[in-house]
Automatic annotation (TrEMBL):
One Pfam family this sequence matches: ARM_PUB
Keyword Transferase on entry: yes
GO biological process: protein ubiquitination
Protein name: U-box domain-containing protein
Amino acid sequence: MIQDWCVLNSSYGIERIPTPRIPVSSEEALEIHFKIKTACKNGDRIGCQNLAAKIKALAKESERNNSCLVATGTAGVLSYAFEEFSKASFEENFAVLDEILSSLAVLLLHDKATNCPVSDASIDAIVLFLKSEDLSARRNAILVLKELVPLDYRKVEMLSETEGAMEALFKLIKAPICHTATKASLTVIYHMVASPSPANAKIIDKFVDLGLVSLLLEMLVDAERSLCEKALGILDGICDSDQGREEAYDHALTIPVLIRKIHRVSDLAMKFSVSILFKLCMDEKRENGGVLVEAIQRNAFEKLLVLLQVGCDQRTKEKATQLLRVLNVYRSRVDCIDSVDFKNVKRHF
């Protein structure tokens, strides 16, 4: 509880100045954990909802509280509670699940989700929030997924098999609700398309069918660094599939965007751009040269030479060297028409 103390002010008389709250202790945190587990055991929705709200308030109050809650494994306890209430009716438990998810979203910004149990029921409930019309619930759902998915590719399989999940992730990019949610959705999609999951090919093809390639290329034209890196990472994963490469071949922005990003964003963006270009060029089978000719026209040869001169990681260097050899075959046949502002490029809107 806030305590007040008084000071004398020459202009306004006595003022009340709030003193800082007393930080939560490990003992208090563990007591809250015990109460949450008891509430779950008894099916006490209101009690658990109130305790989750208390945790969120404590976490937002100070970094010291946050550290204490993280150290005592509060995220794991909340995850357990979410799982327990996910097993019953979503409609009946909506309020408590919503509060727990909101609290988890706050805690997982500072904690690793390694001790958070995630069942099919939990994923189903999170996806229901992800598909809801409540913007706050959708934001909380994607922030929690962003922390859960990278830890275990089996969660990728669970997510991909949940009806409407991939469509909801796509929607967060196509119709953004906030910058944070967009980045989180891109992160989740990246781990899905890059995972070693047996379902990887089906995941990529589904996102391609949704129109993700075109959407990402349009985004990349003016995207800031973080979004750019994530979008390129996804495209790199997508171009591992035949369907993904075909979609990239057919889009007028693909080669201009990739070549422009080689030196303009970051080392990571450069790495992804070269990797995508490598996959497209090395798989090119059209007699007229296709993307190989277009890459030369967009100044790819010169930019790859500069890349080798300024330095890059060994794998990227090897890809750039092989690209130069392949591009050199067509170099004398076409002129460079480098266009950094995408003039004369047909864009899909």
